[in-house]
Amino acid sequence: MKRRLLWKLVATIVIGTVLLFWLIHLLMLHTEQHMSFIAERDQGLLKEYAKKAEKYYLADDIQSLDQWIKQIEEKNIPGLRW
């Protein structure tokens, strides 16, 4: 009987801890998004860039990634260097 109660307590603590960290993560993302000084349009563009860069990186296509970065540098804000 005592072991059963112990396992219920352990399960409750584990589930509660996982939910707490998940909630903290969501709040952190929400706060970071809304406190940003970057316009929403530009945030979307940066997310698109991140997805494309990740695609090249995961495909281990570093040469194409370098070419794509050079294209971005040429077409975007003058003076912007990475």
Kindly describe this structure.
The mean pLDDT is 88. The N and C termini lie far apart (63 Å). This protein is 80% helix and 0% strand. 0% of the residues are buried. The chain has 82 residues and is mainly alpha-helical. The protein has helices at 2-34, 40-58, 62-75. The chain contains 3 helices and no strands.
Number of helices: 3
Number of strands: 0
Mean pLDDT: 88
Topology order in helix (H) and strand (E) letters:
HHH
Q: Based on CA inertia axes, which overall geometry fits?
A: elongated
Radius of gyration (CA) equals: 22 Å
Poorly predicted regions: none
The portion of residues forming beta strands comes to: under 5%
State the main characteristics:
82 residues, 3 helices, 0% strand, elongated
Brief overview:
80% of the residues lie in helices and 0% in strands.
Strand-helix topology:
Layout: H1 2-34, H2 40-58, H3 62-75
